[in-house]
Amino acid sequence: MAKRISKAVIPAAGLGTRFLPATKALPKEMLPVVDKPAIQYVVEEAVAAGLDDVLMILGRNKNALENHFDRVAELEQTLVQKGDETKLERVMESTGLADIHYVRQGDPKGLGHAVLRAKKHVGDEAFAVLLGDDLIDARDPLLTRMIEEHDKRGATVIALLEVDPDSIHLYGAAEVEATDDPDVVRVTGLVEKPAKEAAPSNLAVIGRYVIRPEVFEVLERTEPGKGGEIQLTDALMEMADDVAGTGGVYGVVFRGRRYDTGDKLDYIKATIQLASEREDLGPDLRAWLSGFVAGFERE
């Protein structure tokens, strides 16, 4: 019987240059989405899917991530003395979420290299990879479905999203074959950021993967591509051929709510969307937004 997937890998070594100067001293993963850093949403998603062993792949100047998931005894004691149980509970939420480990990436050689740094921790088990730029709404449990498909098919599973064909050049695009499930496809090829006319489909790869451990062997022999980086996409393309008995690659087509925090405008949209749906903030925010937008319409 296959071992239950319990490990999640979260690459978090990027410099966050698109958000400078905010990310000059603050890791982009710590930028708040309403009142929680983006990285906490990602860890919470992993835990909700049953992955209680989390490995973060960090770069330099990322100590804030470790501090966020650590105890802050003096802050906790201050809140206890004030009797502020609500804030205390919020502060301690991140502390006990999961068993979190950290490893440095060292040289910034791409996503494939970051995943390869997880080899010793993961061992010979299948595992999940979650990228922090994509936040998946907790009401739409994508990762749970992906794990189910992995268990069912014994294959690597990636998340796919139908996008406007005019936007496919911003993503990796999947070439696919249908299966007996309309929300699951077999991946036969991957093209990184293709032109619209060259794209094999409008199914874009988004930042969730459930990967068999054979990926490490493939990554070790994957040659660096553009910019000297080792691409996870290249390894997945080889695994899709199933030449080494890796079970192939399947895609789960996600039709739920996703928030992109990797782009400034989309980050702002994500914050507004999530805040507008909260019970404590939503009513006042929605009322204010209505008047704010109406002001533009009158101009």
Automatic annotation (TrEMBL):
GO terms for biological process: UDP-alpha-D-glucose metabolic process. It is an enzyme of class 2 (transferase). CDD domains: UGPase_prokaryotic. It catalyses: alpha-D-glucose 1-phosphate + UTP + H(+) = UDP-alpha-D-glucose + diphosphate. One of its GO terms (molecular function) is UTP:glucose-1-phosphate uridylyltransferase activity. Residues 7-275 form the Nucleotidyl transferase domain. Its EC number is 2.7.7.9. Keywords: Nucleotidyltransferase, Transferase. InterPro entries: GalU_uridylyltTrfase_bac/arc (IPR005771), NTP_transferase_dom (IPR005835), Nucleotide-diphossugar_trans (IPR029044). Gene3D superfamilies: Spore Coat Polysaccharide Biosynthesis Protein SpsA, Chain A. It comes from the Bacteria. The keyword NADP does not apply. Belongs to the UDPGP type 2 family. This is UTP--glucose-1-phosphate uridylyltransferase. It comes from Agromyces archimandritae.
